[in-house]
Amino acid sequence: MNKDLREIKAPIAEELEAFEKHFRDAVRSRVALLDKIMHYIVHRKGKQMRPIFVLLSAKMCGEIGPKTYTAASLVELLHTATLVHDDVVDDAYQRRGFFSINALWKNKIAVLVGDYLLSRGLLVALDRGAYDILQITSRAVRDMSEGELLQIEKARRLDITEEVYFEIIRKKTASLIAAACACGAASVTTDQSVVEKFYQLGEKIGLAFQIKDDLFDYGEINVGKPRAIDIQEQKMTLPLIYTLQKVDSQQKRNLIRIVEKYNKDKLKVGELIKTVYDTGGISYAQQTMESILEQARQQLAELPSSPAAESMRDLVTYVIEREK
Fold this sequence. Notes:
The protein is mainly α. The chain is about 75% helix and about 0% strand. The protein contains 15 helices and 2 strands. Helix 8 crosses helix 9. The longest helix has 27 residues, at about 100-125.
């Protein structure tokens, strides 16, 4: 039987509590408005997947210490900053069932809050001299920005190949999960070969995580975002990219026309989704995701056995079997 997230977190339950205190201290501000917003952010926390990756990776490599909490806080601060900015860019008023910062306090304040979170992340690392952690995460922030901009550029022409798709999701999603795993390892060991192994492990998990997220767009499960929102935003994800390669030229033109001109027409979008299912686009994406995660499992099998390693393996399974 597959474990739920509470069971997966068991080997690091105490450390997660310590991290939460560390994170609350990191976002505290003397500016009343900012402190109020930080309080809101802390209390609408999600699954805390990235800090979990940091802590599990660290525990697999050694003993969790102050530098590990710095790494987990930095990763979570950067992640939260990107979410706040994304909601402004996407004009989104809800995230996972909560009002977004821009919905409650408007765009100008939301942008400044994102900037504040980013600066707090940098200072958390600098104040503790964690320059290696800062270097890993700074690269991730660069990659995330490049990935988002590459996706926007390609969406205008709707010419994304599978190769470009993987470049986009490697940068925009996998890079931060890879950084989380690498930072966890780097917080307890100076062996760069070990840190690199954990980076590669996190990257594979991140790729699969994003494919799973893309698949939700074609399903019925409520995951905190409307169904077919990727199609509405003209984002070309793996199921559709595969389908466009398999249909004839006339069907391809029709599908692209729906994405370009009728992406808010429920009937036409429904036709597109049915075609994606019928041509095997969903099955192909699922198989690709499972193949990537099998590579991650093989990497994990080469690492020493421990309760933390077992939880990391369970977390890999959770990534593809989660319902939101």
